[in-house]
Every structure is written in structure tokens, then in C-alpha cells.
Amino acid sequence: MKHWRWFDYKKTIPAPAVIGLGVSVWMIFFGLWEMSSAMGWVSELLVPGPQKVVVALYNLIAERGFLGDIGISIYRILASFIAACVIAVPLGILMGSFRSIEAFFNPFVSAWRYLPAPSFIPILLMWFGTGEAPKLALLFIGVVWFLTTIIMDHTKNVRTELIETALTLGGNRKQILWTVMIPAVMPDVMTAMRQMLAMSWTYLVIAEIVASTNGIGAMMMRAKRFLHTDEILAGIVVIGVLGLAFDYLFKVAHRKLFPYLETHGR
What we know:
- The protein is mostly helical.
- 78% of the residues lie in helices and 0% in strands.
- The longest helix is centred in the C-terminal third of the chain and has 37 residues, at 173-209.
């Protein structure tokens, strides 16, 4: 790139600038956090400095098996999210492609979408007890209805000209679905999955602070009982890092699977 400016609309900027800006915002954040703690602007008990959080995280991993909690949390996220995608992706594409399927399912899906997932915790505990099932069910409920609706809306936005061209060339409904609709909407489906995975991490903490003895959220609840705010913040930092890592993996997968979109600047 020969010439670029900081504030050009929708123009790419060099990779070193992207990395530098991304690192800078975190340096400013941690700098302000450390300064607030060191200057006594905040209570050391309630808001310990970054160094104490790092030490707490090290102790959790080295002495208290925190990696096992991280592993079980990742398992819960992946298992519930894959289950949600298995339902939401085909259902959303079919609802966006055929008005009859939308008319049948949409009143049901829309109603569930407005029900807050945490409100199901009592009934899930009654149905499934305190094992893995209620946690996975809560994470599933928190994602599947939103993901279905988002994918349906993206499918509706597939250009009508593509469908009409396929019909003109003699394609039947099944062929158009597999060769036009699905390939056209899959980049947006992956973007929707990436966005909703962040929602899964939000519900993970809720699922694990209720009737759970393992996982990142459970560790944070144990730390709360003893006012170990450094350990609570360590858990939050780990969730943030994991979320960032999964987001990056989705970006890489999107770039690998749909390189023609990168070429055209999407």
C-alpha cells in the first residue's frame, strides 16, 4: 500500500498499523487500571491491580487445577454451540428461502427469542438436575433462536437476480437451494455464528455460577465467597482471551473458506 490516511472511509490500513492500534488500546486500558490501583483511586480489595491478577491467575493454574476448569468451560461452549448450529443453520436457511416454512416456524422461533434464557434455569434444574445437561441446555437456548433468526434474515437478502437466473437456466428448487442459496449465504452464516459465539460466553458464566462445581464461572463464585477479587478478575481475563482466540479462529476460517470476499474488500 503506497499511500494511506488514518481516516479514509472503508479503506484498509497496513497490518503493522492494525496490530499497533490493537495493542495500544490494551496498553492504555491496563495502564489506567494499574495507575488507578497504585494511586489509591480505587479500593485495592475490590479492584486489585493487573499484577495481582496475573499472580492470582498463575497460582490458579499452577496450584489449583484451573486448566481443568478452563477445559470444561470450553467443552460446554463447543458442545452447546455445535448443537445450536446443527438446528439453526438449516432451519434459518429454509425459513429465509421459502415463505411457507417461515410462516410455519417464525411465530414459534420469534416467541422463544424474546424469552430470557436465564429464566429457564429453575425449570432446567428441575428437569435435568445439577449435572451437565442443564448447563448445556441453557447455552443452547441462549443461542439457537437468535442464530436462526439472523440466518433467516441473511438468506432473505440473497439477490433475487441469482435465483431468477438459475430458474432461467432450468434449475429446479433443490438445485437452486444447494447451488445458489446456500453458497450465497454461507459467508454471512459464518459471520452470524461468530457473533453468536460471543453470546455463548456470556451465558456460560450464568450457567456455571448456578449449581456448578467446575468451570470458570464456578471458580469465580468460589472466589466471591472469600472476597478474592483478583481471582474473579483472572477468570474474566481468561474468558476475554478465550473469546478473542475463538473470534480470531472464525476470522481465519472465514478468510480461508471465502477468499473471493477478501479480494473484493468485504
